[in-house]
């Protein structure tokens, strides 16, 4: 209680005039008395590193004064040099009441400036925030926290323990040396790391030099220490790296006379930068070693994610992208998520990194000849292209609108945007104040103007599409004719065409951005890919290189999506894709191919198609019905749903439901149905009848049999209102086994089968014939055995009884021995 | 800091210690608590005569599935039920035998008055002889009663002809001694009287005689016919004779049970069991003994060899039919558990499992209504396990699906449904089990699980055939066509791999050519069974379209002549079938929505099995090892 009361008194409340020199602060009697009474609390005074304090205080106090002056003159539009920019935070608002215990407070009061305090608090707040936000850094944060606690404890304990430990060590070093195990050294080092880290976090400017020591610790031979060191440094850097990029002063600038603070800031910045640089170098070196691969990657990813605006980000990005297809699952995921967050949080770095990352990925895809992990390209899906950037006049509004739209999308983005806006408004104000400063500021800030952004976006797009097209071409190259030339080229550890699937997904997503000029090419590619392995293909040997059914279905899908999104503006014949789909339906195989893709293709290619050729529709209707006969309920259901929709749209196709004698009037040019035809237009499906429905209505799944019955009654029941809202995809999802509830409805109904209990007597015939003589013989044998056993038992019983009188001789050795010891006693009995 | 670390560690250690201690204290407590809870719940359930229901309902939280094996469902009440019988110790007929002894002389005289003088004399002599013997042995207070052949034959005659209760009592005591012979250390049970048996001849005779005649004698004394009507037995409780006879019956049953339980030779057991089956009704008066009987019978059913197992099953069946539904439940549940337990042994003999399964199905079919609830509970459990595995794909869960228990359980219910689906409405069960089987087939991909997949398809075919419902299987077959072989593997010895329990094939097997042959043969076999069912259905051409297309594709690609020939023949036969149906179909005048006409379509042709393809299908089905057994 006393402590806390005291604490409040000692800390000057923020409203106090800050220009009172420290020497002038008058301690009340109460204070003095308290110190006198609790001398041991003040013992630390004797241990205070006066030199450090002097050094710090000299500059510190002045900084504080400067800062407050500046605060007053701020409204007079005086722009300070950039060194103070970071200190610009209004301390009056930020300064919280310290919740640490009194001693620590005392000390801070004595040697630390309020500013430093503010910094520390901010840092701490950051740490807490990080803990909440960054899942991956949680462990590290925890470690940090525990270190902090340890540190706190250490401060509570007088230093003498340490001294105690050290002095005898020095005195009897020779003796203790051997006893001092490696473990202890490690522990010492760990503690040292924690200490340094804490110091840096609490007051980065004063302790900036400790960075070097920490770096040195990272050169340890023990991997554990190195890892800990790397992580601690990561934590430190993440907190102390400023929000701007550091530009080292040129020689000219160095020659110029500058004030003390500027010098100090310069020193601080250059030390930080140097340390950061060597840290990164270390990381990049360690990343190549398998032992450190994960940890180094984690450090780099976290750094890139946290401070994408700082110096050397290019190196970081290169390293991270280099690992994006790492065989190590953890590393790969880390890298991918980092790159993704770069893409989705462009505000942090102004989009420059996006361009770079995309380019780097593109280069990597090129270098590896498309043999990368699918994740490498999947990250492109997180890029957002803003179409409105192009209009310079409305840029501002549009941007806002765009951002507002996105606000709803994700929470993170919202914070980002707010931050952006805040910064922007700040920027505006400053630019009003002084053009020069604003130009300067622009140099370091990361908010590019619209033109640049547009340019960057174009570059990004082109790199993305370059990658996509490269993948497509590569796939074609490997599946096409040339596959015979180099059949040996190994399929790689990622499968035959690892990048194709994400590439197609991406194409489908970004089709809006695609230049119309390329669409023709794209369609050609897709067409070739979709037809790359038809049944008639003879190159069976290279089966591994052929595209799977799902991949080909995807190609068809993308083609349709591209056409749709361009409002069918292009006159491209999609007929080939229908042919492909017609055949692919037959090649589909459950476990191997994705039923979801199939359902989607059915939906997009058949259900959504507006005007269809009757011949074609009939062919598909027939084929889907046949398909439904052979596959599981999910596939069957989606096929039936599609079939129903097709029949609803094409009234004439309902002739298939009727068995018209003589084939009917509409049977086109082909008089007989060809079930194995590869072209829907040549199948002659109109000449057949949907007999499948008859068997399907016996299907074990009640939903399917009902569906089949409904379809077969479509012609007679005139109610055309029942336009089913279910899509094939929906049907597929609903009827897949994973969704199956397997809930047996436990209706307690009476089964007509009553218990048949009354038929006992005739069961007698089941009695096996027994040979009584044999049986009695057996019994006799059994008896004699039993008798023997019994006899044996009796003998033993007797033996046991006699044992009471004299010790038994035939016992196991151990027992014998024991017994031997016992014999005299027993004899005594 | 170093010190601090130490200190902190110390502190933590201290703290941890307490925590640990507490944990240590709490853990068993929790365990006990839960165990108790479970037990209580089970007990409660038991009162409701719904033992099986416990199984899944308890395990509803999804996470728990994996910890609970399929058969553990019934885990605890097993012991409860079955140990009850042991609780009451059995001895000789106390009072009766005392009466016999104490009044032996009188008894004899009483008897002699009634019986013929000739007999009387004999008896007296014998009694004297006995007494002599007793006196001889009486050196240490124990009275020894040794049964000799002559005494026995007299007793037997008395019982046989006169239905003499006293002689019966004696006989039963001897019988008891014979049953317990060698199992009861002399001198523990009743130190004052010891029944001993003279020689093997007498031993055999007393056992055989009592086993053969006891039931009849009881009945004739009680004035009952040979029928097995339980109600009559229950009515007997008012019968004055019953009171006197009850201990005798009890002794007989008890001794027989002991004999059955402990006899070493299976033939003896079979004989005893067979004889015991006649007097099952008598167990109505002794529920404890009944429980014991159930337990022993189940044990014998599961472990015994063929005849014994069958006899034991017949006992169980009789029990479940004669007594109330609770007994049926007990039998079913325990048999089910025993069966699943048996499945768990990796060495389990597949034929034996089929044998047991058929018995179990037979029992279930006795009372479909009751079995229905059990089956639905069990199937729900299976489904939940499957769902778990489908969702998580985690290795343990999948492993569980592969287990012999799981597959055998599915097998059991498939056969149950197949056996009863025509008489009863089992639609929901059928649907669920089909979905479960589909799920299993979907979950297990890869050539190593070929047998399980084939089994799944066979199940589906079986269900489809018996229920007349269409279950598509074609899509499950494709994989098997494409299991690649490297062709370099030399022909390996053909092993029998038709077991349900051999789920996973050895890896080296997959490389062999033999394996591919096996695959193709299985494909053709299951497809033939599928097509045979629908070969006269109007949709047959469409049904066969895709399979034929795939087979043709395989035919083109394959380079194994032997297989190609088989496949080709199959394709030809199916195509002729298609053609035939198509020709007939062209004459049809109805539309697909006319279900009735469609059902009648080609019914006439169906009767006629001369078509080449029909015979072909049949020959394939008959050749297949799996189905052959089923036919049997």
UniProtKB/TrEMBL annotation, chain A:
A Pfam cross-reference name: CBF
Domain Nucleolar complex-associated protein 3 N-terminal: 189-279
Protein name: Nucleolar complex protein 3 homolog
Listed InterPro entries: ARM-type_fold, CCAAT-binding_factor, Noc3_N, Nucleolar_cplx-assoc_3
Origin species: Camelina sativa
Residue ranges, annotated region (Disordered): 1-23, 64-87, 140-159, 391-434, 748-769, 797-829
Comp. bias regions, Basic and acidic residues: 64-84, 419-434, 758-769
Localization per Swiss-Prot or TrEMBL: Nucleus, Nucleolus
Automatic annotation (TrEMBL), chain B:
Coiled-coil features, chain-numbered ranges: 112-139
Record InterPro entries: Noc2 (IPR005343)
Keyword Cell wall biogenesis/degradation in annotation: no
Intracellular or extracellular location(s): Nucleus
Chief place of localization: nucleus
Keyword Protease: no
Chain intervals with Basic and acidic residues compositional bias: 40-55
UniProt region (Disordered), positions on chain: 35-55
Swiss-Prot/TrEMBL keywords: Coiled coil, Nucleus
Family per similarity comment: Belongs to the NOC2 family.
This protein's name: Nucleolar complex protein 2 homolog
Organism whose genome encodes this protein: Camelina sativa
């Amino acid at each position: 209680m006393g402590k806390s009361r005291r604490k409040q008194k000692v800390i000057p409340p923020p409203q106090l005039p800050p220009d009172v020199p420290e020497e002038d602060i008058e301690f009340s009697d109460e204070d003095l008395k308290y110190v006198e009474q609790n001398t041991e609390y003040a013992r630390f005074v004797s241990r205070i590193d006066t030199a450090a304090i002097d050094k710090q205080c000299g500059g510190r106090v002045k900084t504080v004064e400067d800062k407050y002056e500046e605060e007053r003159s701020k409204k007079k539009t005086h722009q300070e040099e950039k060194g103070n920019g970071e200190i610009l935070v209004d301390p009056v608002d930020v300064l919280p009441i310290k919740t640490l215990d009194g001693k620590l407070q005392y000390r801070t009061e004595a040697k630390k400036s309020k500013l430093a305090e503010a910094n520390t608090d901010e840092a701490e707040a950051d740490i807490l925030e990080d803990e909440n936000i960054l899942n991956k850094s949680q462990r590290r944060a925890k470690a940090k926290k525990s270190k902090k606690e340890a540190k706190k404890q250490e401060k509570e304990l007088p230093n003498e323990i340490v001294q105690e430990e050290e002095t005898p060590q020095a005195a009897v070093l020779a003796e203790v040396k051997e006893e001092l195990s490696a473990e202890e050294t490690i522990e010492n080092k760990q503690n040292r790391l924690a200490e340094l880290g804490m110091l840096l976090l609490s007051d980065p400017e004063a302790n900036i030099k400790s960075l070097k020591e920490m770096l040195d610790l990272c050169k340890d031979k023990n991997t554990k220490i190195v890892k800990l060191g790397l992580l601690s440094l990561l934590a430190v850097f993440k907190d102390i790296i400023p929000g701007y990029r550091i530009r080292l002063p040129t020689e000219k600038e160095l020659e110029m006379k500058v004030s003390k603070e500027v010098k100090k800031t310069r020193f601080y910045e250059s030390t930080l930068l140097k340390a950061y640089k060597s840290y990164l170098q270390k990381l990049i070196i360690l990343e190549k070693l398998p032992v450190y691969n994960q940890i180094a990657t984690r450090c780099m990813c976290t750094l890139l994610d946290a401070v994408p605006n700082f110096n050397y980000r290019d190196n970081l990005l290169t390293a991270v992208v280099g690992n994006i297809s790492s065989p190590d699952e953890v590393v790969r995921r880390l890298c991918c998520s980092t790159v993704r967050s770069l893409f989705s949080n462009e505000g942090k770095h102004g989009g420059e990194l996006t361009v770079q990352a995309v380019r780097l990925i593109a280069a990597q895809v090129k270098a590896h000849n498309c043999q990368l992990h699918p994740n490498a390209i999947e990250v492109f899906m997180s890029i957002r292209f803003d179409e409105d950037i192009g209009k310079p006049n409305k840029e501002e509004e549009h941007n806002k609108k765009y951002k507002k739209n996105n606000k709803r999308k994700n929470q993170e983005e919202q914070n980002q945007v707010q931050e952006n806006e805040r910064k922007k408004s700040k920027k505006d104000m400053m630019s009003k104040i002084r053009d020069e400063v604003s130009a300067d500021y622009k140099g370091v800030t990361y908010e590019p103007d619209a033109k640049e952004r547009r340019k960057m976006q174009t570059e990004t797009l082109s790199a993305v599409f370059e990658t996509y097209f490269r993948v497509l071409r590569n796939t074609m190259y490997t599946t096409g004719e040339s596959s015979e030339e180099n059949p040996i080229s190994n399929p790689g550890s990622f499968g035959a065409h690892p990048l194709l699937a994400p590439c197609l997904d991406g194409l489908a997503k970004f089709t809006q951005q695609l230049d119309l000029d390329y669409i023709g090419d794209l369609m050609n590619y897709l067409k070739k890919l979709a037809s790359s392995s038809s049944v008639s293909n003879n190159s069976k040997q290279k089966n591994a290189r052929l595209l799977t059914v799902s991949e080909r279905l995807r190609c068809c899908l993308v083609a349709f999506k591209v056409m749709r999104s361009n409002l069918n503006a292009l006159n491209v014949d999609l007929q080939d894709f229908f042919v492909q789909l017609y055949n692919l339906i037959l090649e589909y195989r459950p476990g191997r191919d994705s039923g979801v893709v199939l359902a989607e293709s059915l939906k997009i290619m058949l259900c959504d198609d507006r005007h269809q050729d009757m011949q074609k529709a009939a062919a598909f209707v027939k084929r889907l019905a046949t398909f439904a006969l052979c596959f599981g309920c999910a596939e069957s259901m989606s096929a039936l749903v599609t079939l129903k929709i097709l029949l609803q749209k094409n009234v004439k196709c309902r002739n298939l439901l009727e068995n018209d004698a003589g084939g009917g009037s509409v049977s086109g040019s082909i008089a007989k149905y060809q079930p194995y035809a590869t072209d829907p237009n040549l199948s002659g499906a109109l000449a057949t009848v949907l007999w499948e429905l008859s068997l399907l209505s016996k299907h074990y799944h009640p939903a399917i049999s009902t569906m089949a019955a409904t379809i077969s009654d479509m012609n007679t029941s005139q109610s055309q209102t029942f336009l089913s809202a279910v899509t094939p995809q929906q049907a597929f999802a609903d009827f897949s086994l994973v969704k199956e509830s397997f809930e047996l409805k436990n209706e307690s109904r009476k089964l007509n089968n009553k218990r048949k209990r009354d038929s006992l007597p005739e069961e007698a015939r089941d009695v096996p014939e027994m040979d009584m003589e044999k049986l009695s013989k057996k019994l006799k044998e059994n008896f004699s055995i039993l008798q023997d056993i019994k006899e044996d038992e009796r003998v033993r019983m007797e033996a046991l009884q006699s044992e009471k009188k004299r010790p038994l001789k035939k016992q196991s050795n151990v027992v014998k021995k024991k017994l031997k010891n016992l014999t005299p006693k027993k004899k005594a009995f | 800091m170093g010190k601090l670390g130490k200190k902190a560690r110390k502190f933590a250690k201290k703290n941890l210690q307490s925590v640990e201690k507490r944990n240590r204290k709490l853990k068993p407590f929790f365990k006990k608590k839960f165990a108790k809870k479970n037990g209580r719940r089970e007990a409660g359930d038991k009162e409701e005569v719904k033992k099986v229901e416990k199984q899944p309902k308890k395990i509803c939280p999804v996470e728990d599935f994996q910890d609970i094996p399929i058969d553990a469902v019934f885990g605890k009440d097993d012991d409860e039920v079955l140990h009850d019988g042991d609780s009451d110790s059995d001895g000789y007929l106390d009072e009766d035998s005392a009466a016999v002894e104490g009044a032996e002389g009188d008894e004899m005289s009483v008897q002699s008055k009634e019986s013929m003088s000739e007999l009387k004399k004999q008896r007296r002599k014998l009694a004297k002889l006995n007494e002599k013997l007793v006196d001889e042995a009486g050196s240490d207070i124990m009275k020894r009663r040794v049964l000799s052949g002559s005494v026995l034959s007299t007793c037997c005659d008395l019982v046989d002809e006169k239905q003499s209760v006293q002689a019966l009592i004696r006989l039963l005591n001897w019988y008891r001694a014979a049953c317990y012979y060698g199992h009861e250390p002399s001198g523990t049970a009743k130190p004052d009287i010891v029944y001993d048996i003279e020689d093997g001849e007498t031993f055999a005779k007393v056992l055989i005689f009592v086993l053969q005649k006891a039931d009849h004698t009881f009945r004739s004394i009680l004035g009952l016919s040979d029928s097995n009507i339980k109600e009559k037995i229950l009515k007997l409780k008012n019968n004055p004779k019953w009171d006197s006879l009850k201990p005798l019956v009890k002794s007989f049953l008890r001794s027989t049970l002991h004999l059955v339980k402990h006899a070493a030779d299976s033939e003896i057991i079979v004989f005893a069991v067979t004889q015991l089956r006649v007097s099952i009704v008598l167990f109505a008066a002794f529920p404890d003994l009944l429980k014991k009987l159930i337990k022993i019978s189940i044990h014998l059913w599961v472990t015994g060899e063929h005849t014994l197992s069958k006899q034991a099953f017949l006992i169980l069946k009789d029990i479940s039919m004669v007594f109330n539904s609770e007994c049926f439940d007990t039998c079913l549940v325990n048999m089910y558990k025993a069966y699943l337990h048996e499945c768990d042994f990796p060495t389990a003999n597949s034929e034996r499992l089929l044998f047991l399964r058929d018995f179990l199905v037979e029992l279930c079919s006795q009372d479909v209504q009751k079995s229905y609830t059990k089956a639905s509970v069990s199937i729900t459990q299976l489904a939940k396990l499957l769902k778990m595995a489908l969702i998580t794909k985690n290795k343990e869960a999948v492993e569980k699906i592969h287990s012999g228990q799981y597959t055998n359980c599915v097998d059991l219910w498939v056969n149950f449904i197949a056996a009863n689906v025509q008489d009863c409405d089992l639609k929901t069960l059928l649907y669920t089990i089909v979905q479960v089987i589909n799920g299993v087939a979907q979950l297990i991909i890869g050539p190593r699980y070929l047998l399980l997949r084939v089994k799944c398809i066979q199940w589906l075919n079986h269900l489809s055939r018996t229920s007349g419902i269409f279950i598509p299987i074609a899509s499950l077959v494709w994989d098997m066509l494409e299991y690649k072989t490297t062709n370099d593997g030399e022909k390996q010895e053909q092993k029998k791999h038709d077991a349900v329990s051999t789920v996973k094939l050895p890896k080296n097997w997959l490389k062999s050519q033999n394996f591919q042959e096996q695959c193709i043969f299985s494909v053709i076999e299951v497809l033939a069974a599928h097509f045979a069912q629908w070969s006269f259905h109007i949709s047959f051409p469409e049904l066969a379209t895709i399979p034929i297309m795939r087979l043709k594709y395989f035919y083109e690609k394959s380079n194994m002549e032997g297989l190609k020939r088989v496949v080709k023949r199959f394709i030809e036969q199916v195509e002729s079938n298609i053609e035939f149906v198509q020709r007939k179909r062209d004459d049809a005048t109805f539309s697909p929505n006319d279900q009735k006409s469609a059902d009648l379509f080609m019914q006439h042709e169906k009767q006629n099995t001369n078509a080449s393809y029909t015979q072909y299908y049949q020959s394939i089905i008959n050749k297949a090892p799996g189905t052959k057994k089923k036919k049997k």
